[in-house]
Structure formats: structure tokens, C-alpha cells
Design a protein that fits this description.
Distance between the termini: 39 Å
Shape: elongated
Largest sheet: 5 strands, parallel
Radius of gyration: 33 Å
Structural class: alpha/beta
Number of strands: 7
Length: 661
């Protein structure tokens, strides 16, 4: 796609919702489950805390959605939390947000895909042994789809997301109708007891408080991905801010309804689920048979068992949307990485769009890291979830504090009464968001740190240090390359000393000598290293026989080295005058097959790598194409980027060209 076609990739709200909101919408599939997993540590006696914890999560989601709607209107350029923190709290705070979000985007892919695979295994237990292969394979498929471009991935992901929403709402309505008719659904696990980890009466006082806080922290996974819309505002059709804010409101309402309904049904159906299936008393084959997820248990209880059509529909829709929920990260991570690269905090390659106008390098980087995590943690949701959501609430808190400062500056200069009233209301919302998300961040850090969240903290710290280092490097390079005196910088050298490196007197050597003479240096000589006396004697004889008009200098090398004597001699030539330069001409073979490179040019490659670090030395390669090279120059098929570079398409029929003379 041409650069001018970027406008055609902008998204209407119906496609933006599944692209940017599939993560928070799909996280309701495991948020309730994570709350129950924590509470059953103390047995079934503490499941009464579930509705209160769910209510706290819902209240938090309302605050966060309202807060980010202010961000969307105030900063429509797409930087989201990173831009808010950078502009209002300084670049260091912005980098903290960026590092946290990058880590959390990686975790979004890992957790979403792992949870989707877990739901597939709930329906098809025979696939349990292939968990990791399935997870990594799904990441590869998502990567390929996103490399096709944002709009194409949106078209592919819209139907599964809406199917999931419809299926979950159907399940909730059916379950509540059955309850109203006196036929409340009962989960298969309802008759299982739960063996407490710490004894029957061990949890009380502070321990009970910590259990509740830990369950709340786990339930906050329902908020992951809420900030993605604020990062993706530039991808919306105009009016961008209004459409993004509307999409965020729809996302928040839908997620709250689904999360509340699933939690209510889990309590009604008396779902019991534990981290270790052997904690369930009466559960057969706990060592080999995986537990069904909460969604699977509810679907079976409401729709008449694990072999009903609607059960498989719910499982298929849930698994599909959980896997596709990683698309939120595949859109957010590359876009944020592109902004960071533009600000010189990440390699500039991250800012480059691919052939389909997607940030291809960011997409591939995300896929590699997330796939590695899935392999390292065996695609286990319970293990991965401990590394999750810490980054989300770090960015939530800092962005809301930044928004309060933004409104303070606005109110300090604004005189219009209507604008001041809007700013004051927005400041109250963002201040409330900062306080609430700050408290949640402390809770998450306290309850999850020793369980694995320290790895996420460490990764964010390493990223922060790395981005600072990259920015220092780019700043240093820019400073070194800045022109101070154009006349001095562009002054011609006093003398140019030409040196042609010679190993044998053959066609490539003669071409290099001819090119060097045409180049017109002040002095010109050929240089060879004597490794074997007989070879050097033969070269001298040929030199005289062909009457080469360039003097040949031979360097002695008693230890059979080539690179060190050449580099030493080149430096000695320039040492006499710092205004002189040395032009080193290196004849090289050009081959057509990768394996031929292993047989040629190794000495030349190593020499160039050393000479390029020598000040005042210009290295000039003089190519000689072998017979295989011209054929390799004709691409057999259209390579990535070929259209962009103006290369021809795949030839219909190979035509044999005459050999090069």
C-alpha cells in the first residue's frame, strides 16, 4: 500500500471496538475465575467475599473508563498515558509509563492466548499435552494477520468479538431466566469440597484482609487493555476524539455487564475451582484431568451439559476471542514503540511502516517475546497471571496524576466559564482516578510481588534503563554529526594516498587497479602480505611480466597474519599528516548463492571491519561478479518490500540470458 493510502486504513467505531477493546472485553472470561482461585485458598468459607470484590472491580472500571475519556479528548495524538505523563510529569515519568505498558502488552498476548488455549482444552481435554505448541502457533497466526494491516485484522477479528459478546449475554440471560423460574443452574463442581491450604481456622484478621486484597488484585485483570483506545486514537475516523470516547464508553458498559453477569452466575451455580485440582475433594483423576474453566462450567450447567451445542458455541467463542484479544496488544505495542522510536527512546526501525502500512518491526518483536514467555511458562495462565496488570496500574496512576496537572494549567490561563466548568469536572474525575488506581497499584504490588510480579518490575526497570541509554546514544550521535563550520567540515584533504590490496594478479585485481587509477589519488601503490614466499615470488614475476604501472609493496608477516600488517601499514601512511586520507581499494567476488559467501571474501570482510574503525581511512569495495551473480540479481518471486522499491513482479517464464562477457 502506498503511503498516501494511510487514510483508507482508518477505522469506523464498529471495527475499532473489536480491535482496541477485545482485551478488556475478553478478560471477563477469566477475571471471575481469578477471584475464585484466590478465595478458595482458604476453602469455600470465604467465597462470600466474591460479590464485594466484584463490586469493587466494577467501581474501579467505571472510574478508569471515565478518566481515560478525558485523556482521549485532551491528547488525541495517540500517545495515551505515555504522552500525558511525559508532558505533565517529565520524560522520566513518561518512560516509566512506557516501560510498564510495553511489559504489559507482552503479558496481554501471553495471558490471553494461554487462557484461550485453556478454554479449548476444557472442551477437548485430549489436547492438554499440546498446550505450548497450540499457544505459540496461535501467536504466529496473529502475527501474520496483523502484518497484513490494521484494517484487515479488524475485519477478521470483528465477527469473533461480537459472537463472544452475544454468546456471553445469551448465557447470562438464560441463567437468570432459569433462576427466576426456580430452576437455578448448578455447576458440576458444586458438590466438590475444597481442602484449605492453611487449615480451617488459619485465616483471620490481617490474613483474611490480605486474602481479600489478593483476590481483588487478581480480579483487576478485568481492566487490562482499557488504555489501548487512548493509544489508538489516530487510527479512528474523524472526529477521532469523539469516536474514540464513544467506543470507550461502549466497551466499559459491555465489560461491566458481562463481568457482573458471569460473577453472579458463578455464585448462583456454586462454582468451585482451585489452582490445584487435587484440592477438590471428590474430584477424580486430579493429577491427569484438567479442571474446566469457570466459563465452561457455567455453559455446561446452563445449557444442559458438556455435550450440548450451545456449550461448544460458548467455548469456541470464548477461546477464539481470548486468542484474538491479544490483538489489542498487537495494535497498542507497535504504535507505542513507534512513538518511542520517534522520540529516540527505541531503535528507529520501530517507527518504520511495512508494505501494508503496519508497524511490522514492532509486531514481530512483540510476537517473539510473547512466544518465548509462553514456552518458558508452559502456557499456564495461573503462572503468567502473577506477572500481569502491574504495568497497567502504574500507567493508570501516573497518567491520571498527569491529567490533574494538565487541568491545573488549563484553569490557570482559561477565562471562559464553560471551558473552566468542563476542566474542573474533568480534574475531579482524574483526581479520583489517580487516588483509586494508586491504591490498587499498592495492593497489586503488595499481593503479587513475591508470586512473580517482581519479574515484571525487573523487566520494566531494564526497559527504562535501556530506553534512557538509547536516547543518550542518539543524542550523542546527533551532537557529533552537527555541522559547526561548513567550510572546515567540507574542506578537501591535503593528499589522497591510494592503496590497492592484492592477493593474486587476476581479473578482480586488474579491475581494482584500473578503478583506483581513474580515481586519481596523489599516490597509488599495490599492497600484498607475504604469507608464503613462493606465492609472493610468483606474484612479483607476474607483476613484471604484465608490466603493471603501479608499484607493488610487500609486507612481511612471519606469523602468517594478514589483517594486522595491513592495518598497521595503512595507519603509518596517514600518520605523517592528519589532513591526508588513505583510500583502500579492496577487490571482492560477488556470488549468487549464500553458501558461496562461506568460500570467498572472508579476509576482505575482516579487513573492512578493522579499517572502518580507523580515522582518515576510506574503504572502497570493487566488485567482480562471478557467473552465478547475474542470475541471482533476477528475483524469482516478489520479495517483501518489492512493490515499495519498484521491483518487478515474479516473471511468468524464466528466460535464459546470455552469459556476461
Amino acid at each position: 500500500m502506498r503511503s498516501e493510502e494511510l487514510g483508507e486504513t482508518l477505522l469506523p467505531k464498529r471495527l475499532a471496538l473489536p480491535i482496541f477493546a477485545s482485551d478488556p472485553l475478553s478478560s471477563v472470561a477469566y477475571a471471575t475465575q481469578e477471584i475464585l482461585l484466590v478465595l478458595t485458598v482458604g476453602g469455600t468459607a470465604f467465597l462470600y467475599l466474591t460479590p464485594w470484590i466484584a463490586l469493587a472491580v466494577v467501581a474501579l472500571m467505571v472510574v478508569v473508563v471515565l478518566s481515560y475519556r478525558q485523556v482521549v479528548h485532551a491528547y488525541p495524538s495517540g500517545g495515551g498515558s505515555y504522552e500525558v505523563a511525559s508532558k505533565n510529569l517529565g520524560p522520566n515519568a513518561g518512560l516509566v509509563v512506557a516501560a510498564s505498558l510495553l511489559v504489559d502488552y507482552v503479558m496481554t498476548v501471553a495471558v490471553s492466548v494461554a487462557s484461550g488455549v485453556a478454554n479449548i482444552i476444557s472442551a477437548l481435554p485430549s489436547l492438554a499435552d499440546h498446550r505450548v505448541i497450540l499457544a505459540v502457533g496461535f501467536v504466529a497466526v496473529l502475527t501474520a494477520m496483523n502484518l497484513r494491516g490494521v484494517r484487515e485484522s479488524g475485519n477478521a477479528f470483528a465477527a469473533p468479538t461480537y459472537l463472544f459478546i452475544g454468546a456471553i449475554l445469551l448465557m447470562i440471560v438464560t441463567g437468570l431466566v432459569r433462576l427466576a423460574l426456580g430452576d437455578a443452574p448448578v455447576a458440576e463442581s458444586a458438590h466438590y469440597g475444597v481442602r484449605p491450604e492453611h487449615g480451617k481456622d488459619a485465616l483471620a484478621g490481617v490474613a483474611l484482609l490480605m486474602l481479600g486484597l489478593r483476590a481483588f488484585a487478581s480480579g483487576c485483570t478485568a481492566l487490562t487493555g482499557v488504555e489501548a483506545i487512548s493509544n489508538g486514537v489516530p487510527a479512528f475516523r474523524a472526529p477521532k476524539s469523539k469516536n474514540a470516547a464513544s467506543t470507550m464508553a461502549v466497551m466499559g458498559i459491555t465489560a461491566i455487564v458481562m463481568f457482573s453477569g458471569i460473577t453472579a452466575l458463578a455464585l448462583i451455580a456454586d462454582v468451585h475451582i482451585t489452582e490445584d485440582a487435587c484440592q477438590l475433594t471428590g474430584y477424580a483423576d486430579c493429577a491427569t484431568t484438567p479442571q474446566q474453566t469457570v466459563i465452561a462450567q457455567l455453559a455446561a450447567a446452563i445449557f444442559g451439559g458438556s455435550d450440548s451445542i450451545l456449550f461448544y458455541l460458548i467455548q469456541a467463542a470464548t477461546a477464539l476471542v481470548l486468542i484474538l484479544a491479544a490483538n489489542t496488544a498487537f495494535n497498542g505495542f507497535p504504535l507505542l514503540a513507534s512513538i518511542l522510536a520517534e522520540h529516540r527512546y527505541l531503535p528507529r526501525q520501530m517507527h518504520t511502516r511495512g508494505d501494508r502500512l503496519a508497524f511490522s518491526n514492532g509486531i514481530i518483536a512483540l510476537a517473539v517475546v510473547a512466544g518465548g514467555l509462553l514456552w518458558l511458562y508452559d502456557a499456564d495462565v495461573t503462572d503468567l497471571i502473577h506477572l500481569y496488570i502491574l504495568g497497567v496500574f502504574t500507567s493508570f496512576t501516573l497518567s491520571q496524576i498527569g491529567m490533574v496537572r494538565h487541568w491545573n494549567r488549563t484553569l490557570a490561563t482559561e477565562t471562559d466559564g464553560t471551558v473552566r466548568g468542563t476542566a474542573q469536572r474533568a480534574r475531579v474525575i482524574n483526581a479520583l482516578g489517580a487516588v483509586v488506581t494508586g491504591l490498587v497499584l499498592v495492593i497489586v504490588l503488595a499481593t503479587k510481588f513475591v508470586q512473580g510480579a517482581w519479574l515484571a518490575v525487573l523487566a520494566a526497570v531494564v526497559l527504562w534503563v535501556m530506553m534512557r541509554g538509547i536516547r543518550r546514544h542518539y543524542d550523542r550521535v546527533a551532537e557529533e554529526l552537527t555541522v559547526e563550520d561548513p567550510r572546515e567540515e567540507s574542506a578537501r584533504p591535503s593528499n589522497v594516498h591510494g592503496i590497492v590490496l592484492v592477493s593474486k594478479l587476476h581479473k578482480p585485481t586488474l579491475r581494482a587497479l584500473g578503478y583506483a587509477q581513474a580515481f586519481g589519488p596523489d599516490t597509488l601503490e599495490a599492497l600484498t602480505v607475504e604469507v608464503e614466499k613462493d606465492s609472493t615470488a610468483e606474484l612479483r614475476a607476474q607483476w613484471d611480466e604484465f608490466d603493471v604501472q603501479v608499484p607493488l609493496k610487500v609486507l612481511d608477516s612471519p606469523f602468517r597474519e594478514i589483517t594486522r600488517p595491513v592495518v598497521g601499514y595503512v595507519r603509518s601512511v596517514r600518520r605523517g599528516s592528519p589532513r591526508d586520507v588513505v583510500a583502500v581499494f579492496i577487490p571482492e567476488y560477488v556470488v549468487g548463492h549464500w553458501w558461496e559467501n562461506l568460500l570467498h571474501n572472508q579476509s576482505a570482510l575482516w579487513l573492512k571491519s578493522r579499517l572502518l574503525f580507523t580515522p582518515g581511512v576510506m574503504v572502497i569495495s570493487v566488485p567482480w561478479q562471478l557467473s552465478s551473480a547475474p542470475r541471482a540479481d533476477r528475483p524469482a518471486r516478489r520479495a517483501p518490500g518489492a512493490v515499495r522499491r519498484g521491483e518487478p513482479a515474479r516473471p511468468v517464464k524464466k528466460v535464459r540470458e546470455p552469459e556476461q562477457v
